[in-house]
Amino acid sequence: MLYALITALVLGVWKISSIGLFKAGDDVGYWLGVSGGVMMLFIFLYPLRKHIRFFHRLGQMKGWLVVHMALGIGGPLLILAHSTFHIGSLNAAVALYSMLIVAGSGIVGRFVYVRITRGVQGEKDQLRLWRDRVGWDKGDMRSLFKLVPSLETRLVEFESFALTEDPGWHGVVSRLFVLPWAEWRVYRTCLADMEAPMRALAEKNQWHAYDRVRRNRNARVLVRKDMDAVLRVAQVSAYERLFALWHVAHIPFVYLLIISAIVHVIAVHAY
After folding, report:
1. How far apart are CA 163 and CA 155, in angstroms?
2. What does the pLDDT look like over 97-116, one tens digit per residue?
3. Per the UniProt record, which residue ranges are transmembrane (predicted)?
């Protein structure tokens, strides 16, 4: 939802800029640039809140993060409007592209961050709670296993495959891009395994069409949610490593943005 909103806002700013109501050098364009630049400057309050003791008493990190994200979206949008999606000089190009890289990497960082908030142990706890709730040892899941014995074997094999440790970057790539494809293939195989036993059970108990559809859907949901929970456990360590790499790669572009923005402001006011 957030990414769709950002896309819509960028398209809206582009549409407004294309109308020709203002230019980068007139009063409206100038103050749009100033407003966007001030918002980008305020973004640095968030790392100050994280690392400087004085700021620790000033509100919760969650609220600061929300403001940080809002400024990280609003600032670039105003600067894009200021530029009217045109580049007038080399320095302006460096400043603009640095800003877009920083803003884009921030969006990527947010995508990764939300996937590591629980941590590996937290995701394992969620998997265990899910299995307790649906009755892995007894209950709905166990009843499904009795009806389709191959399901338990396939789910256990998928879990073993998914949680096999691979400390290298090959393991990171595999868990993020290969494992979801493997999950889909195993899931499709599970659906094929369930088809005949579920049809036979429906005929034996003379289920109405509605009941048959509902029970089939519930069985599919049980299998898919279990596999999704295993996938989250497997991927969280990969996302943690990716987040560490993102943080290292993000910083140089922040410094480049600061330097190019300062030079751009000086050049605009000097000439």
Report:
1. 12
2. 778 887 877 777 777 777 77
3. 28-48, 69-88, 94-113, 242-267
